[in-house]
TrEMBL record:
PANTHER family: ABC TRANSPORTER, OLIGOPEPTIDE TRANSPORT SYSTEM PERMEASE PROTEIN APPC. This is ABC transporter permease. The keyword Membrane applies. Belongs to the binding-protein-dependent transport system permease family. The lineage of its organism: Bacteria, Bacillati, Bacillota, Bacilli, Bacillales. It is found in: Cell membrane.
Length: 278
């Protein structure tokens, strides 16, 4: 009885963490969407103001409110991360299903995974983003084409395991097509891992977007992205304006941490014995 109660309490705590993380992320999105251009406008009479009750994150060299810019930047990062994670997950799903087609296709997919993982991640991301023209579209394409290998490797292992199951063999002997087997046996089994993998891709995508934007290969400088805010603030840190980099950087790390907590707790909810495997 005590064991059942303990498991129930653990499940309740996991659900509570998931709900709190989702609410926090929704609050960031709503706050960012509600911020108008007037909040991001230049107010030279307020420039270089330190954090205060009126401006919690202070203001920059043009008098722009850093809290508003940070929330707007986090919303942009969320949008980029969402698109990139969805596209990467779809690529991973497609490649993992192709790997189940035959041994030749499996060898090709494995070679592709190894090739992408062998190239320094940030270098490949910058090259792809630059090649397709940069900006929002370039960053999303770059992130999508560089974040699928690890998830593909995981899903491929699951697919190969399911293929050897008895019920799949029976379906094959009954004359069912590969597409029918994929739709009725493989994809339903992969969906939980695919969803968790997509959520766990978010922090990586968001951090890498901020990194290449910081280096000047990402989003347009007209957008208040976190990478641009951090890049611009570097010129003013030596003058004592520490808040220009501290609060946006900390906010980015907190959001990434929340996504990580969300992904791990969703995985724990779907597969309570994940940590005990191996």
């Amino acid at each position: 009885m005590k064991g059942i109660t303990k498991k129930f309490n653990l499940r309740q705590r996991t659900i509570a963490k998931i709900i709190l993380a989702i609410l926090f992320l929704i609050a960031i999105i709503v706050s960012g969407l509600l911020i108008g251009n007037d909040k991001l406008s230049i107010q030279l009479d307020l420039k270089n103001s330190a954090p205060s009750l009126a401006h919690l994150f202070g203001t920059d060299w043009l008098g722009r409110d850093m809290l508003a810019r940070t929330l707007k930047g986090l919303t942009i990062s969320l949008g980029v991360g969402l698109l990139a994670a969805i596209l990467s997950s779809l690529i991973a799903l497609a490649f993992s299903l192709l790997a189940s087609w035959n041994k030749t296709m499996d060898a090709m997919i494995t070679w592709l995974i190894d090739m992408f993982l062998s190239v320094p991640h940030l270098v490949l991301l910058i090259l792809i983003s630059f090649a397709v023209g940069g900006g929002f579209t370039g960053v999303v394409i770059g992130l999508s084409l560089t974040h699928w290998p690890s998830l593909t490797r995981l899903l491929r292992g699951e697919v190969l395991q399911i293929k050897s199951a008895e019920y799949v063999g029976i379906s094959r002997r009954l004359g069912k097509s590969r597409w029918w087997i994929a739709r009725h046996h493989l994809i339903p089994h992969l969906l939980p891992q695919l969803f968790v993998g997509m959520v766990l891709l978010f922090p990586h995508a968001i951090l890498h977007e901020a990194a290449i934007t910081f280096l000047g290969f990402g989003l347009s400088t007209e957008q208040p992205a976190i990478g641009i805010i951090l890049s611009e603030s570097m010129r003013y840190l030596s003058t004592g304006m520490w808040w220009l980099a501290f609060f946006p950087g900390l906010s980015l790390l907190i959001m990434v941490g929340i996504f990580d907590i969300l992904g791990k707790n969703i995985r724990k909810l779907i597969d309570p014995f994940h940590g005990q495997k191996g």
